[in-house]
Please model this.
Amino acid sequence: MAHILVVEDEERLAELVAGQLSAGGYTVSIARDGLQAMHMLESHPADLVVLDWMLPGLDGLEVCRRIRAHSITPILMLTARAEELDRVLGLEVGADDYLTKPFSMRELLARARALLRRVDLMKASPSHADGGRRAEILEVGPLRLDVPGRTLTVAGEPIELTPKEFDLLHMLAEQPGRAYSREYLLQRIWGDEYVGFDRTVDTHVVRLRRKLGALGDRIATVWGIGYKLRAD
Model:
């Protein structure tokens, strides 16, 4: 049973969110502030973190940065800030998805399930099923993706990616040189249940390019269409 950590200082909302997730079949813990969340994650890792932006002391953005510094655990950000710039900022520091308050509990559960399905797919990959004997490796120049292990190395150096960053790079790497539209990438990676804004793919590409450093320009913009991964 998946473990979800809810980090929310509003007691009533925290209880509502925890109750909805528990009714959905998940084990749920609650942290009231950022520091408590970090301590809880050290002793009891979570499969998903539902994280409020506005927290006392250590705010949600800083908690997100700290989690992402050493973990690819999916993060669903809860925010009362509806401006696009704020939503982009949340995604850039490592959040995988967001919900703007007020939100419906049905949508919360749908988004949590979508993020956890990716965790389940990773656990069900051949590397888990048969000890890695059927490992699938994709190599594009110095980029090397271990698909079952969901790891990326560049010239032998590991690069930490969030689940969706890996999914995006994986799709581009399957057919180097092929141009993918933003709409296609959004549908394939985020799924039917995703209701977001049209810069989601762009934001993740920016993050990928930054992490790839000098090789970031291999993810090329195809004007009027979307993106492709250059093989050369």
